[in-house]
Amino acid sequence: MKTTIFTVLGLLVFSSNIFAQSVQPEDLAQQQLDAYNKRDIDAFIAPYSDSVKVYNFPQQLMFTGKHIMKEQYGKMFEQAVDLHCTLVNRMVEGNTVIDQESVVFQKGSPPAKVFAVYKIKDNKIAEVYFIRPD
């Protein structure tokens, strides 16, 4: 009987440790990038916090909230049929992911060069900062 109780308790502790593990910040960044390239709006917004804040670097707030993100990116996904983002480089430090990206909006036009900084809180992307080099 004691062995059964200890086995069950051990399984519960093991199971809770598996589910309590946090998602890696780079996994969230990759998840949204993959969905972006598929123009899958629901999968794209899934890794974001409901209250996500999106900025033009350093502090120009563009919008707040997943519902606005879904609306704005949803329109872009419908209109930009050639839309594709290529990851050039990725750096991860703690809960911050910095992606260097090359984004094609229309074939034949030069790609936009962008740095995207993702701040992760509570296993969701809580803030995004876009840096567009001159």
Task: Give a written overview of the molecule.
The protein is of the alpha+beta class. The protein has a single domain (23-131), classed as Nuclear Transport Factor 2, Chain: A, CATH 3.10.450.50. Helices cover 39% and strands 38% of the residues. It contains four helices and six strands. The protein has a six-stranded mixed sheet with strand order 2-1-6-5-4-3, covered by helices on one side. The chain is globular, with a radius of gyration of 19 Å. The N and C termini lie far apart (70 Å). Mean pLDDT is 88; it is low at 4-20.
Descriptive keywords:
134 residues, 4 helices, alpha+beta, 6-stranded mixed beta sheet
The gist of it:
With 134 residues, the protein is α+β, with helices and mostly antiparallel strands. 39% of the residues lie in helices and 38% in strands.
How would you summarize the topology of this molecule?
Elements: H1 2-20, H2 25-38, H3 41-45, E1 48-56, E2 60-64, H4 66-79, E3 84-93, E4 96-104, E5 112-121, E6 124-131
Parallel strand pairs: 1-6
Antiparallel strand pairs: 1-2, 3-4, 4-5, 5-6
Q: Can you tell me the CATH class? A: Alpha Beta
Number of strands: 6
Overall tally of domains: 1
Average residue-wise pLDDT: 88
